[in-house]
Each structure stands twice: as structure tokens, then as C-alpha cells.
Amino acid sequence: MREGELGMVAAELALMKSEQAVARGWGRLGGVAGALFGVGLVHCAFAGEEERSRTLPSLTLQVAEHAALGGEIGLNLGLACPPADTRCTPTVVSDSTFEQVTVDDPTVFEIAYEANASRVNLRAKREGVAKLQITVTAHDAEHHAYRDTFTRTLDARATDRVELDYRGTCDTPLLFGTGTSFEIKAKLSGRGAPLTGDPVPFPASSDVAKLDRAFIGILSFKAQGTAGAGKVQSTLDPMDAIDVEVFDSSQVTALAVSVQTTNRLGDLPLVASNSSFTLRPELTVGTRKPCDELLPIKVTTDTPTVCTPPQTRKSSGFAIKTGEPGLCTLRIELGSLRVTQSVEVRRNG
Fold first, then answer.
1. Distance CA 246, CA 252 (A)
2. Is the pTM of this model over 0.90?
3. Hey, what domains does the chain have and what are their CATH numbers?
4. For the segment 289-304, what is each residue's pLDDT rounded down to a tens digit?
């Protein structure tokens, strides 16, 4: 055997000895390392199988079938699982991009993009029917990607009826203090079909309040600064109306207050020190309770170290901050009407 061949044989023998030594080393580690390695392989296999057997939801698109002329409708994306598919986990869209949006008759619907094409609105310009086609990509919270193309038929109609209802619980005529904001629900319809979108101008008005905003069928009004009686009504049909009365401070016949807490110490409300509570005015106008009011009620305190007078007022009442423990004495005034409210303030614990 030549010298070169002898060298190759020697190298192979050395490699075999090295591999045997490594094998003996793993054997000396015992079954723990092998078991852990096997468990890892099984876990990875199960995880991969679970991911492969999972059903992803499908991208969905919701858009109003009938749009109010002069208003805008939005495109709402979602993710929906197949019915009765237990392998599908419900989730929501975390981000989306509208790649392509087309309307076959732009004289009926105008496309209005918002920032970064992440939202699209359609503005109804004239009565008619148009076909919408969009291609959209989206991701869920787990970064799964979705892409689909949708086609919808849209119908723009003129509003011929407005149904109004107070967004709250109150008897009619609705009774509000001067300058108070309130909301009215409006349902639009055209040729017997419910319509979506807020026409500009909105077909509703009031002779005792100003319409500040219409958004998704909610009308925000602000009562006038003087007392009076009138209506919130449809501009299409005066029979679709709600009676409204506006009162001022001089018409309030009784003033009372309540403290929003369930804790009491004898006859007094009990609250914690270094916290806050709500003082709610309760007015009477003749024999009626207002739906809401923001009249210039004045609140002062005789015990400023125990409770601090509010800086501002919300419709729900006055937020009173408490300080050290003691008896909080509040004085409430509205015109010639005055009332005193005491509150026991105790240290927590």
C-alpha cells in the first residue's frame, strides 16, 4: 500500500473513533437529553399539525344597500368563520388597505378616500343605482393576511320621511334648561326602504334649539338661551315632530340635591377622604322634572379643607373632591332657591 493510501485509512479510523466517543458521551448523559430532544420534536410536530388543521376566517364586507341622497355611507370590513366550524377562531381586522375601488356610474356615487386609503366612504350624489367593486387586503391581530374582491349593487334614494325619537327616557313635551345639549334619534326612509347616511342639509330642524351635528342618525341639538316652547320636526312632514320646552332659572320652583353614594352614616352620605363624589342637582319646574339642564347653579363650601367646590359642571352633576376627614358642608344656590347638603368624610380603612 502506498504512503498516500495509508494516510487516508488512518484518517478514517480517527474519525470513526471520534464519532464513537461522541456517542458514548451522549449515552453517559442518560435518557434525559434524548427524552427532551424527542419531546421537542413531538411538540413541534403537534404545533405544526394544529396550525395546518386550523381554519382561517373569511374576509367580509358590509355596506348599506340603500343610501340617503346627499349623505355618505361607509364600507365595513370583518372576518367571519364558516358556520359550525370549531376549527376556526373568531377574530377582527386589525388593519386594511383598499387597493382598488371603482363605481361604474360616478355620477350616482362619489368615492371619498380617508387617510392612507384605510377607509373609504361613498357619497350619494343623485338618485340611481350603481355597481361597486373593491379589492382589499387586511390583517388580523396574529398577522394573518387576507385579500379579496367584492362586488355590491348600491341604490341612492331621496329621503321622503324622517322619524324622530328622543335618545333617552323622558316624557313629552321634552323639557330642557336653556343652553342644554340633547340628542334626537332620526330614522330616514325613501320609497319605503330604510336609508343610511346623513344628508346635508339634514331634513330636520327646531324653533327652540340649534342643530349642531348629524352623525349616523343621531342629531345633536343645543337649546336656545331663552325660555320657550316649540318642536324638533322633520322638514319634509310637520307631523313627524317632537314637542320641546325650554325653561330658565326663573321657572324653577324647587331645588334639591343628591349625593351619588350607597354608603351612609346615620342620615348623612358617607364618602372616603382624598377621593371624590358626585353632587347631582334635582330641579322641579312646576310639577315636572327636566330631561336635562345646565343652569348656572352655584356650589360653595363652608369646609374647604374637607371638600373642594367644583371648577366645572357636567350634565350628570358636580364633581366634589374630598381632602381631610371631617364634615363637608356644601351650599347650593339657583336664583332665590338655596339648599345645604352635608356629607361625612372618613379616612379609608
1. 12
2. no
3. 58-157 (2.60.40.1080), 161-247 (2.60.40), 251-346 (2.60.40.1080)
4. 999 999 999 999 999 9
